[in-house]
């Protein structure tokens, strides 16, 4: 029997089985610094990714140690095998808009625009950004005339904090980076009013740390 450990925080919800790997179709192989980094890259790099095998012991630092998989052990539990060199992690609630973007309500990013789209939802607007490798952020018009208007940007509010303007007909979405686990510096606004803040992603503990914590709790 596996010992699942639960990791639940704002951006990603996942479960992990220490010392196991899943035999499943590999979508992509990348390098990751930790199991948390590996599962985050699953969210960022491929929309078909559902779980990952993370090799804890890498024989060659230049070799990818994170397998992005399109399957999960819930569908085929018999394909989950023991191997002390691996941790197996699954996305439990892969809401990609919340997981892949930092959102700020009432903010418009005034900067050079890559392209504009007419979209039906903020999810569609953000999906258009994900499909464009040069896109780093979007403005989405939530109300008023031209609701659904979507602007794609190659830069972010973090790059140009002076370009953040208060406008409650817009929401601003900034694409998260694969290794972004630390708080982002606060940004200046062209207004004296405080705008809604966003919550930073916290680095998730490893499977081993969680199992050790459970043992002594």
Automatic annotation (TrEMBL):
Region feature (Disordered): 187-206
Compositional bias ranges of the Polar residues kind: 187-200
InterPro entries referenced in this protein's UniProt entry, alphabetically: Pan_app
Name of the protein: Uncharacterized protein
Organism: Paramuricea clavata (Red gorgonian)
């Amino acid at each position: 029997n596996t010992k699942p450990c639960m990791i639940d925080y704002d951006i990603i919800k996942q479960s992990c089985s220490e010392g196991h790997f899943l035999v499943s179709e590999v979508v992509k192989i990348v390098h990751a610094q930790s199991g948390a980094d590996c599962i985050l890259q699953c969210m960022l790099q491929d929309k078909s990714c559902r779980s990952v095998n993370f090799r804890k012991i890498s024989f060659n630092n230049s070799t990818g140690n994170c397998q992005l998989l399109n399957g999960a052990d819930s569908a085929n539990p018999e394909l989950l095998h023991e191997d002390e060199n691996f941790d197996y992690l699954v996305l439990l609630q892969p809401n990609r808009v919340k997981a892949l973007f930092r959102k700020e309500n009432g903010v418009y990013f005034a900067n050079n625009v890559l392209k504009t789209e007419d979209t039906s939802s903020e999810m569609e607007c953000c999906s258009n950004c994900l499909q464009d490798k040069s896109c780093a952020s979007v403005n989405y018009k939530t109300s008023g005339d031209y609701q659904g208007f979507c602007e794609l940007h190659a830069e972010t509010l973090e790059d140009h904090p002076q370009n953040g303007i208060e406008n409650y007909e817009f929401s601003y979405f900034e694409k998260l980076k694969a290794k972004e686990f630390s708080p982002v510096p606060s940004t200046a606004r062209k207004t004296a009013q405080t705008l809604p803040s966003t919550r930073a992603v916290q680095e998730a503990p490893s499977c081993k740390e969680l199992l050790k914590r459970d043992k002594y709790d």
